[in-house]
Amino acid sequence: MAAKLISGTDIAKTIREELKDRVRELSASGTTPGLATVLVGEDPASRLYVGMKGKAAAEVGIHSRQVTLDADTPEAELLALIDELNADPAIHGILVQLPLPDQIDDRKVLVAIDPAKDVDGFHPINVGALFSGDHTALAPCTPKGVLEMLFRTGNEPEGKRCVIVGRSNIVGRPMASLLIRHHGTVTVAHSRTRDLAGVCREADILVAAVGRPGTITADMVKPGAVVIDVGTTRVEAPDRPRGFRVVGDVDFDAVSEVASWITPVPGGVGPMTIAMLLTNTVEAAARSSEQGAAQGAERAGA
Ligand code: GUN
After folding, report:
1. 64 in contact with ligand 1, CB cutoff 6 A
2. 40 lines ligand 1 (CB under 6 A)
3. Across the strands, what pairs with 35?
């Protein structure tokens, strides 16, 4: 294999160690970061992700509250829970796992979350802030994790051709904003892109976020490109203990012969998403603590 492996597992571990120190400092000054995760329904993949997020939070010292609601929970009940979490001073980050059941309108839920606690970066205020170049906005965790992987392996996007395949709100679109912010030249390709292979071959940095195994083959990759695989598709594997394995969008073995760096699946972007959720939660708590201190000083001066 020619390409070097970008281990999200290792980078995320380093980040979690760094966060432990920040959490300790914040806790010592009276603000223990708190994260609430909300799961509606029983989807096994969502249940697993939410469990992993809560566990990772607790491991770095973040106070974690996990709420699970029945699949038939009315929208009003979920909105009432969000109001409660918005008002709870022990909670600095709120994550509602998507997708939500049909009776609940995702958009209503996302706008109900206090933008200051929106650690997913999905509230329209944060989406708009990110898109308009506001560096202080809480950015969505998966693309933020991809960026962190690029920086921590010396693959800064500045001046480079970046091609993202996929235009979702969770990955493709915010990924484009973040790469533009860091001076990449960005193309967002998607299912209707003509000559997808030709577009991908222009990329110095290729981010695949489609959710379809085998989308990126070796002939679509420029020699020496950095290839980031965001795909996570469960495929049946009766020989595995859980009966499935998770595969990305990239034909890993063949592309490894062409790329200079590549992320594996699993062990690539996945652990980074969780590390960035913790980072955003700590960031939100730090801001809340600073705001509290500033308000205290104002009151003292008044
Ligand atoms: N479902 C798939 N990815 C995500 C994510 O990053 N955040 C939330 N809340 N739900 C998701």
Report:
1. no
2. no
3. 64, 93
State pLDDT tens for residues 80-123. 999 999 999 999 999 999 999 999 999 999 999 999 999 999 99
Q: Where are the domains of the chain?
A: 30-114, 141-270
| Active-site residue, 13 included | no
Mark residue 147 as left, alpha or beta (left: phi above 0; alpha: psi -120 to 50; beta: remaining).
alpha
Whole-model pTM over 0.90: yes
With beta carbons less than 8 A apart as the criterion, state whether 230 and 249 touch.
yes
* CATH fold of the domain at 30-114: Rossmann fold (3.40.50)
85 lines ligand 1 (CB under 6 A): no
What CATH number does the domain located at 141-270 have? 3.40.50.720
Q: Known catalytic residue: 103? A: no
Report residue 167's pLDDT band, with 50, 70 and 90 as the boundaries.
very high
Catalytic, 66? Answer no
Nearest ligand 1 atom, CA 170? 6
pLDDT in tens, 277-302: 999 999 999 999 998 888 888 888 86
Neighbours of 151 (CB within 10 A): 13
Asked whether the predicted pLDDT for residue 161 surpasses 90, the reply is yes
Q: Do domains 30-114 and 141-270 have the same CATH topology?
A: yes
State how far the alpha carbon of 225 is from the alpha carbons of 65, 140, 193, 263, in Å. Answer: 41, 24, 20, 12
Contact 261, 155 (CB under 8 A): yes
